[in-house]
């Protein structure tokens, strides 16, 4: 068998990953870090990313073992193309289900539901979202991502291919 590497597009901009404890008390820091990392981007876009990322972090904490002692969540941020911004979170605790939008509720049940609307929010605010298991053969965690459209004229000038966050 011959190995043939594939040409996969590299991100135009790639921010250094950030790591957070698997705890809801990290939400403030996650939002502040996004505001810092996305300085110069459209304020509405930053607000949207903060909201979506907060929801994804809360899901990591609630539905996986990342919320336990020692659990961690890694946030990645990149521009895979000049008109796309992607945020993703990887829970490193494993032990959870797969992210999904519940569809088996009746209209009355949706009206009374107080939870499980976060992924509906993610779906409606992003251009696309998805997930994959970090290691399909073991329960090592889940990687969830969401992409957002960027207007080329609203991207800050002078972005470097790799942005150090600390």
TrEMBL record:
Keyword Kinase: yes
Domain Histidine kinase/HSP90-like ATPase stretches: 23-147
One Pfam family here: HATPase_c_2
InterPro entries: Anti-sigma-factor_SerPK (IPR050267), HATPase_C_sf (IPR036890), HATPase_dom (IPR003594)
GO molecular function list: protein serine/threonine kinase activity
Protein name per its UniProtKB record: Anti-sigma regulatory factor (Ser/Thr protein kinase)
Keywords, sorted A to Z: Kinase, Serine/threonine-protein kinase, Transferase
Gene3D superfamilies, alphabetized: Histidine kinase-like ATPase, C-terminal domain
Organism annotation: Nocardiopsis aegyptia
Superkingdom, natural source: Bacteria
